[in-house]
Design a protein that fits this description.
The protein is mainly α. It is built from eight helices and five strands. The protein has two domains: 4-117, no CATH class; 177-248, Arc Repressor Mutant, subunit A, CATH 1.10.10.
Length: 257
Amino acid sequence: MSVTVTTPVYEGPFDLLLNLILKEEVELYEVSLSSIVDAFLVEMERLGDLDLEVATEFLLIASILVELKTRRLLPGQDRADLDDEFGLWEERDLLLARLLECKTFKDAAVVLRRLAADASKSWPRRSGLEERFLGMAPDLLEGVTADALRDAFLRAMAPRPSVHVETEHIAPIRVSVADAVVELVSEIPRSGTVTFRHLTRGLVDRIEIVVRFLAVLELYKQGVVEIDQLGTFGDIHVGWRPGADPSDVDLIDAYEG
């Protein structure tokens, strides 16, 4: 801190005086706080501009010294508690941190004020053509009538029509691979080796044929049927594998491909 004090027992920085008193290197009873405060006020008047940070720090240290002196004047308080003194130092550091933040915002406010002052010296350019070019510009409202504006407003404010998609023609899928596996486990062992064309007889929808083919592949994956195709694009023959037990087939709940 830039504040210096001069006393009969000490001369130097004010914050160092507090440190020396706490270490009992300077006797607190011999320090005249009133003369220090008077000297500080005279110094502030001489400078003219009040430094808020220096003044606040001086008041904080002076208040700590006043508290210490008051405690030692009270009966039974021969020695101040060091924990309390260290707590005061901690409060001092916190206060200085807040003062630093305050100074940061204060400096930012000065910069913003200067930018606002510089901006007030300029004039923005108005939109539109200059007066000498106004006669050359076409009339944008030529041919526009009140009825036309009314019709445009009604079209803009009219609610949008809701789109309705008919779904009655879409047939829902009512077959599943799990149901087809159950049917084939019941049909193939009883019929022997049959063609896939035979297994899909009577089916009309293509999705039903695809589901039946996936069921055959599922049984082949489980190793209970054999698949054979004698020629290119020929019939696919499906037969139950000898020794396979239909009860060993894992009936699936949902086909995962």
